[in-house]
Prior knowledge:
The chain contains five helices and five strands. The protein has a single domain (12-151), classed as Dehydroquinase, class II (Rossmann fold, 3-Layer(aba) Sandwich). 34% of the residues lie in helices and 17% in strands. It has 155 residues and is α/β, with parallel strands linked by helices. Helix 4 (92-100) links the parallel strand 3 (79-83) and strand 4. It has helices spanning 29-32, 37-51, 63-73, 92-100, 139-151, and strands at 12-17, 54-59, 79-83, 105-109, 131-134. 1,3,4-trihydroxy-5-OXO-cyclohexanecarboxylic acid is lined by residues 20, 83, 85-86, 88, 109-111, 113, 120.
Amino acid sequence: MASGRSRSAAPVVWVLSGPNLNLLGKREPKIYGKHSLQDIHKMLEKAAKTHGLVVDCRQTNHEGELITWLQQSDGIASAIILNAGALTHSSIALRDAISAIKPPTIEVHLSHIFAREKFRHTSLLAPVCKGMISGFGAQSYLLALTAIAESKINR
Ligand code: DQA
């Protein structure tokens, strides 16, 4: 569908999660919380309806697949919520993909990356993203959706 609209004409927000985020709920719950990624996707679907948006939620453990999705989002997604996991700190290729596409991308993290190990303090993606939300658990994704809806960056 062209220009980020679904059949119902609601703007579509792509929610992309990278490596190891399929393990949410079981993975280090003290850091990442008890919600599974499926739980988060359900919460986003519900919240999207209240904002008049539609979400398309995906997860992959593969850097190349994330890059392909970002490229494919151009002209389809009106905005992107991206949790690239550890690729945040290492992937120039992912940064270049975000730079190359039109949909504004919001970087999200469940944990507060700046309050953790030093190697997590650098995001290669943040400078090419519209903004970053970090440290609010599952709420980070929902806050990104609210930011997209309220700032109308999807229109
Ligand atoms: C994360 C933070 C990253 O440093 C880490 O590698 C992850 C998850 C977060 O959501 O807090 O996999 O992106």
